[in-house]
Design brief:
This protein is mainly α. It has helices at about 5-30, 35-40, 45-75, 85-95, 100-110, 120-150. Residues about 150-160 have low confidence and may be disordered. This is Nucleotidyltransferase substrate binding protein, HI0074 family.
Length: about 160
């Protein structure tokens, strides 16, 4: 990418993660496992899940570290000294994101970091929550990006 505009860079990065995330979601939904045992004994489904969870995390990171500040900067908001929650609250007021959803996605991501080997139902429920959250995050990012489309800063490569 040759453009040094922070908003275009953020859209490009998030767009890359979105494309792979949505592909993994499509693959997952084509043949979802019924339980953890079925998941863990199918290497292809595990590969899809790994890609899905990795891109769910990477998309969250790209939005939080790049798109949040780039969007606020593009809107001439004085955000530099604001904590993240204030940035999110401002973006919510501007119609870009729902803070409760954002915090929920972070909680789901944090829950994935904890393994419960003796609780397969709990582990599988956490995976199912993450998959639903990944789809919601993808939709939220698409809506956010669409709201930015009229801006001359938008980058058509973010659609890839």
């Amino acid at each position: 990418m040759t453009d040094h505009n922070p908003l275009a860079t953020a859209l490009w990065e998030a767009g890359r993660h979105l494309a792979t995330l949505e592909s993994a979601l499509q693959d997952w939904h084509a043949a979802p496992p019924a339980n953890l045992l079925e998941l863990e004994t199918d290497p292809e489904t595990l590969r899809i899940l790994d890609q899905l969870l990795f891109r769910f995390s990477k998309l969250q990171d790209a939005l939080g570290s790049r798109l949040v500040p780039a969007t606020l900067a593009a809107l001439s908001e004085p955000f530099e000294d604001w904590p993240m929650i204030d940035r999110l609250n401002r973006l919510e007021k501007l119609g870009f994101i729902d803070v409760d959803n954002w915090l929920g996605w972070r909680e789901i991501r944090n829950r994935l970091a904890h393994e419960y080997p003796e609780q397969p139902e709990t582990r599988f429920a956490a995976i199912e929550s993450a998959i639903a959250a990944a789809a919601d995050l993808a939709a939220a990012y698409r809506a956010w990006r669409a709201k930015l489309k009229p801006s001359p800063c938008s980058d058509k490569s973010s659609d890839e």
